[in-house]
Amino acid sequence: MDVSASTPQLLRRTNLRSVLDVLRTVPSATGTDLIQATGLTRATVIAVCDDLIARGWAREAASPRAGGQKGRPARRFEFNESAGFVLGLDVGLATVRVVVSDLAGNVVGGTESRFPYHGGTPADRRSTVIAATRDALADAGVPAASVLAVALGIAAQVTPEGTIAPGQELAPMFDLGLTQEFAEGFGWPVLVENDAKLAALAERWRGIGADESNLAVILAGERLGTGVIESGRLVHGALGRAGTMGGLELVEGVGNQDGIAKLARHWGTAALDAGHEGMIRALVGEHTNRVSARYVFEAAAAGDETAAQILDRIARRMARVLALVSTFFDPRLIVIGGAVAASATALLPGMTDELARYVPDPPRLAVSELGEMLVATGAVRLALDHVEARLLDLRPGNGTAPSPEAVPSA
Predict the structure, then answer these.
(1) Residue 318, CB-side half-sphere exposure with 13 Å CA sphere
(2) Nearest of 113, 239, 122, 241 to residue 180 by alpha carbon
(3) pLDDT digits (tens, 9 = 90+) for 234-289
(4) What is the pTM (predicted TM-score) of this model?
(5) What's the Cα-to-Cα distance from 84 to each of 10, 183, 372, 395, rounded to whole Å?
(6) Residue 403 to residue 171: CA distance in whole angstroms
(7) Cα distance between residue 71 and residue 217, in whole Å
(8) Torsion of CA 90, 92, 94, 97, to 10 degrees
(9) What is the pLDDT averaged over residues 197-224?
(10) How confident is the model over 34-40, as a mean pLDDT?
(11) Which residues, 6 or more positions from 80, have their beta carbon under 8 angstroms from its beta carbon?
(12) Residue 227 burial (CB < 10 Å; 0-12/13-18/19+)?
């Protein structure tokens, strides 16, 4: 290896990365700001900034002129967050949500689409996802060539290599060939991750857990699933199973992975079958015993004793799940997310009191405020992490094309 030939290129790349990392964290910076932040000389800083501008990753910002200032104001530089975009997808059982984000994490467009009734075939579901992706790009006014990475969140176990783990009941609903479809059809790199793990990334980035390095997020709508952040890093485990809740059938008082919404629905229906004639019946009507989770929470808020008993039963059951997560992962914060997050606030007092029976110094409990954007936000964060680690090897406006210096010379 010719060290003397590679050293100048390596030094140049190191300087580019140092300045770019600073620009990504501040609104704008002068040459003096960058000198202080990087320790580089003025000549090097200016040369690097001009290089970044030529590559498309930076731009010159307007320099406000102070009152009475004479001469030309100092040049200011800023990161070009519109040099490329990423897509975050939340692929659920019934719907797909697509979010388009610039490189600063600002959402610039998106859409949501429902899958065909009863889920449809894999081909039907794949077509729905692709159509939703095109619609999201159109909504954002972003060309496909400007997308630098795509991340998918799915309600299935994903290996550390980003493939869907075999042997799962729901795997056929998510094994849609999207990685190949997006790579071959659009030239996009695709990352696949479990939805609960992406929820944890989202809460650490933009949610209640923004200042917490040790937290867990439980998606608790239809089925329970957990994502864990430990010392600031997402936990996967050897096979990607960290945080899965497949052993709950062994836990007394739990018995399966049913989530809050499913339990409220089933136990509310059982109450009507048993002859309940209170607020739940008034909300549902006389012609059906099928209860939605929303009606159970609304009835409890209105003072219905049967509904309140159902919520207390759910809170006590959930506390046992929280105790397991607390014991195994020792988080400081556990966030409840998913389709029932807005209603789950009513469960917090009961879960908190019950959890204290099982765990000394229990973690703080909270409900996610990210709503339906929770998993898609985590997908955006995953895609941004992928791009940020490779910025100098990409060309703005064409996500898969490496920059000239990244292409080996003949």
Answers:
(1) 35
(2) 122
(3) 999 888 888 888 789 889 999 999 999 999 999 999 999 999 999 999 999 999 99
(4) 0.90
(5) 24, 17, 25, 9
(6) 37
(7) 55
(8) 0
(9) 95
(10) 96
(11) 56, 57, 58, 59, 103, 396
(12) buried
Strand partners, 76: 30, 61
Rounded CA-CA distance 125/132 in Å is 11
Q: Six-digit token pair at 138?
A: 């159109």
In the block, residue with structure tokens 């094994």: 175
SS3 string of 382-398?
Answer: HHHHHHHCCHHHCECCE
The tokens for 409 are 């010379």
- Three-state secondary structure call for residue 349: helix
- Look at residue 35 and give its three-state secondary structure: helix
Q: Is residue 400 pLDDT above 50, yes or no?
A: no
Containing 148, the helix (H) or strand (E) segment is strand 147-154
What are the CB-based long-range contacts (under 8 Å, 24+) for 249-254? 251/320, 251/321, 251/324, 252/320, 253/316, 253/317, 253/320, 254/317, 254/320, 254/321
Question: Could you give the CA distance from residue 346 to residue 215 in angstroms, rounded to a whole number?
Answer: 21
Q: How far apart are CA 171 and CA 175, in angstroms?
A: 6
Q: Give the whole-angstrom CA distance, residue 314 versus residue 300.
A: 13
- 156-205 pLDDT per residue, tens: 889 888 888 777 777 777 888 888 899 999 999 999 999 999 999 999 99
Please give the domain boundaries of the chain with CATH numbers for all domains.
3-80 (1.10.10.10), 85-203+373-393 (3.30.420.40), 208-369 (3.30.420.40)
In sequence order, what are the beta bridge partners of 102?
Answer: 85
Neighbours of 167 (CB within 10 A): 6
Residues 304, 283 contacting (CB under 8 angstroms): no
What's the pLDDT at 397?
A: 65
Number of other CB atoms surrounding residue 68 within 10 Å: 5
Q: What is the mean pLDDT of residues 365-385?
A: 96
CB 242 within 8 A of CB 236: yes
Amino acid 71: pLDDT: 57
* 314-363 residue pLDDT tens: 999 999 999 999 999 999 999 999 888 888 999 999 999 999 999 999 99
